[in-house]
Design brief:
single chain, about 60 residues, 2 helices
């Protein structure tokens, strides 16, 4: 890791591991946020969408053929 980018990455990783709060927000916060948002909307079929379960949908949404 003699390149400038390598030294920069190494220094940033060293700084990140020194502060436990940074590690919490980097790893735990996104997971907790996904669980909260996912739980808020749920997976119950919605009659407005012809009773389709949100988990069975596709992305990007496709029209029925």
């Amino acid at each position: 890791m003699r390149t400038a980018v390598g030294r920069l990455v190494r220094a940033e990783l060293r700084l990140m591991t020194r502060d436990p709060l940074v590690l919490t927000f980097v790893f735990a916060f996104p997971v907790v946020t996904m669980l909260i948002i996912g739980g808020a909307f749920g997976t119950a079929p919605d009659p407005a969408f012809d009773g389709v379960n949100p988990r069975t949908g596709t992305w990007p949404p496709t029209s029925p053929s």
